Amino acid sequence: MGAESRSSVSPPGRRYWKIAVVVLGVTFVVAAGLYHLARLYVLNEAERNIQAVLLVHKGTHRYIQEVMHPVFYKLRAEGLAADTFYAPEIFSSSFIVRNQHKAYNEERKAAGLEEIYYKMAAFNPRNSVNKADALEEKLIRMFNENKEVKDYREIVRIGDKDYLFVALPFLVNQERCMKCHGNREDAPLGLQALYPGLGGFNEKAGEIRAIESIRAPLEEQYFLLYIVFASSFAGLLALAGLLFFNARLRGMVRTRTHELEQEVAERRRAEEEVRQTNEELENRVEERTARIAAANKELDSFAYSVSHDLRAPLRGIDGFSLALLEDYGAQLDDTAKGYLGRVRAGCLRMGELIDDMLQLSRLSRGEIHRQEVDLSGMAEEIAEELRRGAPARRVAFEITPGIRVFGDAILLRAVLDNLLGNAWKFTAKTEEARITFGREEESGKDLLFVRDNGAGFDMAYADKLFGAFQRLHSFQEFAGTGIGLATVQRIIHRHGGAIRAEGEVGQGATFYFSV
Amino acid sequence: MILLVEDNPDDEALTLRALKKNNILNEVVVARDGVEALDFLFGEGGHAGRDLALMPEVVLLDINLPRINGLEVLEKIRANERTRLLPVVILTTSNEERDKLRSYTLGANSFVRKPVDFLQFSEAIRQLGLYWLVLNQSPPLVKV
């Protein structure tokens, strides 16, 4: 693995720190959830305990009032019990329930369970143990003022323990209750004898006389342990999951890294190949350029020696032929003189050929210096020169003014020289000769043209027109070396343009070109 | 006096013939290469002891010469105190731009191309003779 690919993965220390944060977070969230659930559970348990105790009490109350009291009243009516007899131990449901609860708590304690506080709290109890404390008094008042409220709940802290405290309105005073709880004077005599004060008397019907006040402990010691264990377990599970996931990720990263490395290597190889190919191509181009430069140089020196070495002997041949004619003309007959004349004509023609060939070669080499060129002006100049060269000829030149192009002035001059010169030459035998230089548009492109109404040519040979030394007319008919149009075509091509010719024998020719 | 520097015997003969034809009867000294031409002008080699007060009115100098070519000869002529004002006409077959440029840069007084047509060549020689030997005033002789 390369150093650069390793740097994208976090350092190990940082990774462990992250894992610790995740595990602690999971543990905390799970613990919080569990705490909430456990608290609900514990509260519910306390609620159920309280409800169980209250239901038992209710049952006891009912049994005393609905079963025991009718039996007692029957016994008294039958005279089996004295009218004055009263014992709360066997008559007062409140007394019986209170003492039954006392016994119940003793049994709970014996069984190792915490006591459940229970009190029937009243403003004005017969027994002072039932006297309401401050909170209970407040609640009795609250229940009397808000008859629709059926219970009151609060979690209270006593010592270092939480308790669920529940208060319920106890009996609402009925008319039948007034026998014992109404005016003291109206109560059974036994009762009056037993309770000398006003406690439990002077109650009013329809009022809530007392509340049941009960509280059960919240068994927190269990759920704390449970929470710690469960949340630790969840944390461990999360840790294990993370480690497993991490290992899997690492595996995936390793595989992908390996693949990427292979890809990179492949790409490098491809790049290297491309680079090598490029280098090879560059070398080849350099080599070719050098070869072309060498060839050009060779061509240059070839042209130079042609211009020197081929022309010198020609001058000798011509010069000495003329010397023969001048010095020994008297000794030669007309045929011999005619032969010498042909020798001289051949020399001159070869001299022209050499000159034209050199021009073609020179124009084909050299660099192109582009600038704006006024071709119309140039054509006017050439026309003027042609007229001056043969003042006897009557030729109408029609030159469209203002034709300007971007190109090499010297080379374009050679183009117009040749094209206009040709037109001039091939209209020599035409009456009312006309030569036109202008511009036409063809499929959106500007085309320049030189047109004449001279000898023309057969379109069958159109493609031969631009070949070097190609001639479509005999020398006797029209003089020339056959190099002019080859030169023109080469110059046009070097400017990135094209040239073509249209014509008909005896109807003239038109040369279309673009620069 | 004319100094004709020409290595081609045909051209030499034709030039002499053209001079004669045009009644230019001045003495013609012929040098057949650059070294010989310089020897004559500086009185060295085969021309040692020559009277250097006698200098040609014009030098007709070819470019393509054995040993030392015409352009080098021209350079040496212009570098020498005694010959630096000497009229030199380049008379050559060449029509190359660079030869013209080089010749004039080195101080040639004229550049004439030898035509193939002897009649034209003869006319050129006639005009050269008329101009340089008759019309033109030679520069003062340089005393060294």
Would you give an account of this structure?
The complex is a heterodimer of chains A (515) and B (144). Among the domains of chain A are: 12-218, no CATH class; 367-513, Histidine kinase-like ATPase, C-terminal domain (Heat Shock Protein 90), CATH 3.30.565.10. In chain A, 58% of the residues lie in helices and 15% in strands. Chain A contains twelve helices and eleven strands. In chain A, the strands form three sheets. Chain A has a five-stranded mixed β-sheet. A four-stranded antiparallel β-sheet of chain A has the order 1-4-3-2. Chain A has a two-stranded antiparallel ribbon with strand order 5-7. In chain A, helix 8 (220-328) packs antiparallel against helix 9 (334-364) and helix 9 (334-364) packs parallel to helix 12 (484-494). Chain A is rod-shaped and about 205 Å long. The relative contact order of chain B is 0.18. Chain B is of the alpha/beta class and 144 residues long. In chain B, helix 1 (9-21) packs across helix 5 and helix 2 (34-42) packs parallel to helix 3. The two termini of chain B are 21 Å apart. The mean pLDDT of chain B is 89. Chain B has five helices and five strands, in the order E-H-E-H-E-H-E-H-E-H.
Number of domains of chain B: 1
Based on DSSP secondary structure assignment, what is the total number of beta strands of chain A? 11
Uncertain stretches of 5 or more adjacent residues of chain B: none
- Which chains share the greatest interface? A-B, 22 and 19 residues
* Order of helical and strand elements of chain A: HHHHEHEEHHEHHEHEEHEEHEE
User: What percentage of amino acids of chain A are in beta strands?
Assistant: 5-15%
Describe the largest sheet of chain B: 5 strands, parallel
CATH homologous superfamily classification of chain B: Response regulator
Q: Give the neighbour order of strands across the main sheet of chain B.
A: 2-1-3-4-5
Counting helices, strands and paired strands, the structural category of chain B is: alpha/beta
CATH class of chain B: Alpha Beta
Overall pLDDT level of chain B: 89
What is the global morphology of chain B?
Answer: globular
* Secondary-structure element string of chain B: EHEHEHEHEH
What is the overall silhouette of chain A?
Answer: rod-shaped
End-to-end C-alpha gap of chain B: 21 Å
Number of helices of chain A: 12
